[in-house]
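SEQUENCE WITH STRUCTURE:
===
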Amino acid sequence: MATVDRTTQYRERIWADLRKVGRPDSRFHWDLSSFIADFEGSDICTDRTLDLDVWRTLGNRRVFITPDNSTEELRKRLIAENVPFVMTTYGIQRGFVELDSTTVPPGEESYAATLDGMDRYAVPVSLGQLQAGDPFAVLVTGGTAVSMSGVRFGKGHGYFDFEYAALSELGLVDSDAVLIDMVHDCQVVDEHLDGEPHDVVMDYIVTPTRTIPVHRDGREPGRILWDLIPGTEFERLEVTAELRRLVQTVDKAPRADKTIDAERQDSFRKEEKE
């Protein structure tokens, strides 16, 4: 409970600071509980992100980017460089989409990088289709706040935590995946925070002035905490129902991360009884 209270305090303080350097949303204006804001220097943040070695060793592994305003410039740059990527729709309401950057006409890169542009040029992709493909090498997100220990806090909905856990449940994220949080300097909390069990720890914090590697001792595979789903917005998502079907019907695991442990099975059985 103490961690939750502190998170709320940091979130409110940073939202106040972010209004000085951030950019309002065309739909939500300054309601920072509804979107992750772009900010002054996000173009430099993008440069720093693309300077990381992970981009030079992608191979066939894929890229995931959140639909945040602060990651729009990165999406634009990847489109211009013909790098395909996967993104979720706003609030994961319509699941995941995948953009083949080569399908974007010249001159349309900026528009294609917006959420409206992604609706036009990207194609919907089911979890089953994602599971049939290669794993992800890099996952990039924005956020509201991030501690020096790499614990990231978003708007309070838990979207990225869910996205990471879902991809991990499908065996698409392993310990080699690099997680990057792109934020303004005012969003970095110079303190160690332990976070909650569902909070995702980042590998890099990238700001307009700093690239901060987070030193961690390995990363456990993410997993959906099914007993926390009922009563939340995730309960109504089609992607949640599909994930449940896929995880429950796995009868073999080509990747170690796809194994369903006894604790998860107990969680399924518990929820089915409720």
